[in-house]
Each structure stands twice: as C-alpha cells, then as structure tokens.
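hey so i finally got around to running both of the ones u sent me last week. sorry it took forever, my laptop kept dying halfway thru and i had to restart like 3 times lol. anyway pasting them below in the order u listed, first the sequence line then the structure token line for each. didnt double check formatting much so if smth looks off just lmk and ill redo it

first one:
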Amino acid sequence: LAPPEPPLPRMAGSVGGSGDGSGGGRRGAPYELEIWQESDGQGNIRCKACNKMCDGVHETTKEHEKRMEQFLWQLGAEEQEYPEPHQDWLAYVPDASYGKGRFLKCLMCKKWVQDWESFDTRDYVGNHGDRGPANQKDHAKKLRNLEEYVVDCLAEKQLWHPRTGGVGSDAAGARAGVGVSAGAALLR
C-alpha cells in the first residue's frame, strides 16, 4: 500500500474544493495552483492579483476579472513592446511605484495619463492628448505654446522610444493643431 497523499489546498471556508479549477483542490489528484494563486501554508488559496482568499465566489467578480487582466499583463510587462505614442509629448515611461512595466506620461505636464487605456494614442484627445475640449487646463495652455516644449519632449521621448521612422513630429503637431519648430525636425 502507498502512503496517503498529503492534504490538498482548499478554498477558504470549505473542505475539499469544487473540482472545477476555480480555486479549490481536486479530489483524487493533487491540485496545481494557477499562476495567480498561492497557498497560505494553512491549506487555503489566496488570489495574488486581489490579495483575497479564493472562495469560489471571489473568482467570479468583475473586480477580480479586472485585476486578473492587469496582473497577467504585468507578468509579461518587462518583455512588452511599447508602441511609440503619436503625440510628441507622450511616452511610455517606467515608474517603480506603479509596478512593473511602463506607463503613459505627458512629458509636457510631467503627469501620468489616467484617462486612456489603449496603447494606440492616435485618437486620444483627453486630458493630455491632442487639442480638444477634454484637455486639462494646463495641458491646453502648453499645447498652444508647443514650440516651447517640443524639443525637450522629443529629447526625453527618445530615451523611451528611439525613433525608428514610425511616427513623425509633423503629423503629431498637425493633429494637435500647432506648428512644430525646426528644432523638432532635427531630433527625428
């Protein structure tokens, strides 16, 4: 006779689990934790994305779904290729306080973009995007004087998005409704 198998991890507040892979142990076979799960050492399984116990209900919530998407994306964030934003003043920049990966930042305003979720900024006219009614007041003022900022923005942007000929300053300036200085052309 073989020795008995070690106890299986279980969902918080339950015995044995559901067997459906939602967080509880599978009867008859050792349960392998998902990449987003961890054992707490007492037989319970914790969701690493949400820092909550897997109880069969938590895993079905919209909040869990949202956090899982971010968690899984961040696992591959270091290898993630970030497209160069179409606006000369935007760049994907790392910030350790936000976690792994790079985040969209307005180089003119020195602020993080929080109203845009797509990698493609072509149609972005929000707080820090192309000229539009949703622009933040300070950003709109700086866009009116883009010539004063564009050389510095492009120099900083070059650190995070070395030019490959994909995005041109003239196009971004035209979309923003401003002229681009000769200095910006030198950095292309």
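and the second one:
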Amino acid sequence: LMWQYSLAHCIVKAYFPKGKKELDVSMFQAVVLQSFNERASFSLPEIRERTKLETEELRRTLQSLACGKIRVLNKTPKTREVADDDRFDFNDDFSQKLFRIKINSIQLRETAKEAEKTHESVFRDRQYQIDAAVVRIMKARKTLGHNMLMSEVFSQLMFTATAPDVKKRLESLIERDYLERDE
C-alpha cells in the first residue's frame, strides 16, 4: 500500500472579515492555505519554498484556490494560468452563504501512455480472474461440458468477458496442465 497525498482532504477553519467558514480542501490546498496564516501575500516562488510542493502540483493547487468558482485567494494578474511572477493574496472580500464549502481540486489529465498502461493492467487482472473462476468451477464439478463451463464462468465474473477471451484462458490452462480435455 502507498499513501496518496493528492487524494487526502481535510477541513480547514478560515476566518474571513465577513464570517467564519469551514473549507473542505485537499491536503495540498490546506498546506498552501496554512502559509497565509503568517502573511497575506506571497509570490509563486515564495509559496513553493514554504510548501516544498512540486511546481506543477503547486500550479494546479493555486489555480483551484484562486481561479476556480470559489476564490479563497486573489491572483495578480487575473489570468487562468499560473505563472512564476504571479502574486497571491488572501481574499478579504470572500463571502459565501454556506458555512462549509468544498473547494474542488483540478485533476491532472491522464496521458495516452498512462491510459494504455492502465488498460493493460486491467486486462491482466481480468485474465487472472477468468483463470481463477475456471479452476474454481472445475474443482467443484470435476467434469463439465464446454457450454456449461462457459455459462458458469460468465455468471461468476464481475465484469463482462467475451467468449474468445474465456476460450484463450481455457487454452492457456490446458497448456499449463491445470485442465485437460475429455477425449
């Protein structure tokens, strides 16, 4: 298991001139907001130095806090992208009807290479699930016709498998001597 800091979130109590609010933010957003306890204004390099976050992660985090629908921070200049010479200030004019406010993080887009790697991993995991289902069924039944085996496998699987995929896995199990054909 590995801790995913980018997926953690917490509740931060914020005191604005127009009232106290609870902000439901990601861990990175909370770290950035904590910097504004000491001063009301920072540049991007100053925040990077204080938080020790990676540059791209910090840019996404600041973009969500200063350029999103809920703007807890003000950004100068007022553009959508975060540049190295931008300044960030605590938003004294922030007001919202709700007491607890969820500030969404900006998600990183998955690249084509990562998507391909994910699909390969899912395919490999599904192969193991098909193998396990076939072995489980055959241990319980000892002998079974091909059509009955296929229907049993399809009923046990949690995902929709295709008949050619199951046939390939059956052939693989036969080659590895987990199963044998009845003559």
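quick thing i noticed on the 2nd:
The first strand starts at residue 9 and ends at 16.
anyway thats it, ttyl
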